[in-house]
What does this fold into?
Amino acid sequence: MNPFDEELKRALQRVDPPAGFADRVLARTARAERKNHASASKWTWFFGMGGLRWAAACALCVLLAASGAIYEHDLQQRRRGEAAKEQLMLALRITGSKLQIAEQSLQELDSAGQPRR
It folds into this structure.
């Protein structure tokens, strides 16, 4: 057997635990369980009784309400913009018709032979 195998055999051979080891491990485990139980009881009402589901449902409702409000606001903005566009188009049509009337009047004056000012 080579030296590595011998060293590995020595490292892996069974060693009996010191006296009282099992009692210390059990005592430490009991303390940890009591500590976990005490800290868990603070959150049991929230996680254990469906509180997380209620919180998620409430968050979803708030999100839906906010997105609906944002959508409605955007829709109103779009309607106002379309109304402003219609008003502008009407003003341009009126202005164009008034300019045509003025141009016709000028052409009539020119054809009548009167000098322009």
Remarks:
- The chain is about 85% helix and 0% strand.
